[in-house]
Each structure stands twice: as structure tokens, then as C-alpha cells.
Amino acid sequence: MGIPQEVVDRLLKENVDHECPGAPEICVKLSAVANLPTRFGDYQVAAFWNNHDRKEHAAFIHGDVVGKADVPVRIHSECLTGDAIGSLRCDCHDQLVESLEKIGKMDAGVVLYLRQEGRGIGFINKIRAYRLQDAGFDTVQANEILGFRPDERDYGIAAHMLGTLEVESIRILTNNPDKMEDLRRHGVTITGRIPVVIPPNRYDHAYLATKRGKLGHLLDFEQDDDLAARSPEDA
User: Which residues are known catalytic residues?
Assistant: First the structure.
């Protein structure tokens, strides 16, 4: 049982002519909702428009989350190479799958899929950063060489998407404390954190070490040698 159809109809109707007051920097509208059976369980997919980056972001909704508190939420930034192709250079694909599986077994929850490729630097620059990493730089250094901050993402759109769905508070599936801080800055009430720690493989161990050491991600690996524990065949 997902969001009841009458509630979906109400939300869509409210969003047809929705205008955020005062011409804000970010205004988000719910544009379409449909049922989406998946290998992870029954979901609904919601498509959102916004005036900020004008990209089409998505929410994958399991159960009825409208007006609910303590909703499990994964906010996942797009990773074409990982999510679609199964790249072993990062843990993005595995985090997405684990989040969909976890939420699919719960009463209700949401996966927000944001079009923020490459920590917000875009696909072309992400591949340029890969080339720099091939030359020995870590992910933070590569972004900085290209003229970016280590992480260019912003979660204002995600906060508005949750507000549009009338989610009162969330338990967030993340290892990233900066993501939590940014969401709180945008008015999201976070009541708890659910770790999404993926065992490393020999290709992403340096990537994960940089996440932990330079970006402060909460990755529970006892020592750096453990970062190479999983073979890529197990990914």
C-alpha cells in the first residue's frame, strides 16, 4: 500500500499552480506520480520540477509517507558509472541497492534520486577527475585541481521534495555528516541515522579512505588494510 490515490491527486492538484512566495532561489513542484513495481518491492515514483537547476529529480516511495514522522529516507546523488554500469571505483551502486532493499522491507520510506553527478560537478568533469585519479590524485585533490570544492552538492531541492510530500521528520540512510548538516540548514528534522556501509573492494579502497579521512564520512573500518578486504567479484 503506497500513498492513497486520493492523496496523490490532492498533491498533484496543489502543485499545478504552485508558486513559492517571494520568488525564492529554489521552488519545487510535484509533476507526476505512478506505481513502480521493482525487484526491491512495490514503489511509487514521483517526478519533480524545480526552478533552481531545472533538472528532473525523482522520489521512489515505498508505503504511505505523507504526513508521517521518522520516515526512513535515502538521498542518493546520481552516479551514471556506478548506478547504471556497475563501476567498482565507488560504492554508489551498492549504496543505492542496499537502500532500496532496506526500505522495501520496511513499512514505508523514500529514496530521493538527485541529478547531482560527480558530487555536483557534472559528468564531464567527473570523468576528468577520474583521469586525475588515475594519475595518483585522490578525489578531493582531483576536484580542487579542476577548480571545484571537494563536494559541490546542495540538498535544498531534497528538502523541498520532502516538504512537498509532507514528510514531518526523517531517519536518514547515510554515512555523510555534512549531508545531515545541510539538510538541517534547509529545515529538515532528522531524528536518526541508519548507516549504509558497503565492504570495500580493491578498486575503491582509496576512494573510501578519502571519504573517511578527508570528508569525515562515518565508515566503520578498523584499519586501512581492511579497505582492501573485498574482491571485486564480490561487489
Answer: 151, 153
Give me the number of domains the chain comprises.
Answer: 1
Q: Is residue 147 part of a domain?
A: no
Mean pLDDT of 84-103: 96
Q: Residue 177 sits in which domain range?
A: 5-116+153-211
The pLDDT of residue 24 = 65
Which among 134, 118, 91 has a CA at the least distance from the CA of 234? 91
User: What is the edge-to-edge ordering of all strands in the sheet holding 71-77?
Assistant: 28-38, 41-50, 57-62, 109-114, 71-77, 170-173, 190-194
How high is the pLDDT of residue 219?
Answer: 86
pTM: 0.90
Per-residue pLDDT, 120: 93
Signed CA dihedral, 124, 148, 60, 197: sign only: positive
Residue with cell 554500469: 85
Q: Which CATH number does the domain housing residue 28 bear?
A: 3.40.50.10990
Q: Is residue 125 one of the residues assigned to a domain?
A: no
